[in-house]
Amino acid sequence: MRIILADDHPLYRSGLKQLLEQLFNGAVVDEAGDSAALEALLNRPPVPDLIITDLIFPGFDYMRDLKRLRRTFSLCPIIAVSMMNDPAEIEQIMDLGVNGFISKSVPSNLVLTAIENVMQGQIEVRISDTALNMDHALPQHVSLDELTPRQIEILKLLRHGLSNKEIARELGLSPFTVRSHVSALMKNLGVSNRAAASAIAASYCLT
After folding, report:
1. Which of 55, 74, 77, 114 can bridge 126 by disulfide, Cβ–Cβ 3.0-4.6 Å?
2. pLDDT tens digit sequence for 46-63
3. pTM above the 0.85 mark?
4. How many C-beta atoms surround the C-beta of residue 85 within 10 A?
5. Which residues of the chain are in CATH 1.10.10.10 domains?
6. Class of 149-203 per CATH?
7. In whole angstroms, what is the distance from residue 96 CA to residue 207 CA?
8. Buried b / exposed e along 116-139 (16+ C-beta atoms within 10 A)
């Protein structure tokens, strides 16, 4: 198994490399600290089995380069790691085609779980408890009785970190319709972001 790990912080990169070698026995983890090194690794065989990349490092434009990675390595799982915790930014990143997003503030055991789940075909978004608690207006008692069956379906998919486009594909709906459902769903739940809605889904063990 070949993994490409791109991050310009040597300490974080070293720690994550150790976690990956622990998780995947015998894996080769190739490291890059800037876009030139990443490009060299991408052009070298064999094709990677997993790409994990920071979003901000020298020469890397994630809005451009994540799309390019997705086009070039259509079958390879791609995971973004970052200090970003804003749900709107994370949703935008997921829309670029990555298979997972992991906040750098997430504990190592949850990082391993998220990576394992991505390798098994799941879409994963792992952000810190701080981000989940950003919405201080979370209702103390939330009932799902007010939700339509479609909204329940969408809430389950939000918990798995799917973007609006992915939800639209999954349910055979237009992205515009999904946006309308998500907006109504969050209004009914009394929350203002997807992370808070996901936390409610988790509290009800929706899967």
Report:
1. 114
2. 999 999 999 988 899 998
3. no
4. 18
5. 149-203
6. mainly alpha
7. 24
8. ebbbeeebbbbbbeebbebbeebe
